[in-house]
Amino acid sequence: MYVVTVALVSLPDAVEDLAAELRSAVRTCSHDPGCVFYSVQQDTAVETRFLLYERWDDRESFDQHGKSDFVVEQGQRLARMLAADPVVTEYELIE
Fold it and tell me: Which helix (H) or strand (E) is 22 found in, with range?
């Protein structure tokens, strides 16, 4: 199992647009091959902070997901809404 978190910080005037893009990502990416779980959370104290939590069958599935047209195109749209670069952390499940 391969787990990925992505911490995102929105520009203050882009919170709603970013939230809409991230909801779209959940609807689309949760059906990608190898995706076990894909969710987005918004910080309850700081509305500009979001967290993606993803679980994949393996690293290869995650890599293929990252190359999909949807992810590449959405990444370009998200870049204009973010106050900072996303922080991506990848984990291997310890069994």
Answer: helix 15-29
Q: pTM for the full model?
A: 0.92
Residue range of the domain that includes 33: 2-92
Burial state string for 8-17 with b = 16 or more CB within 10 A and e = fewer than 16: bbbeeebbee
Single-letter code of the amino acid located at 48: T
Residue 45, classed as helix, strand or coil, is coil
Return the biggest CA–CA distance within the chain. Answer: 43
pLDDT, tens only, 46-70: 999 999 999 999 999 999 999 999 9
Tokens standing for residue 63: 């890599």
> How many domains does one find in the chain?
1
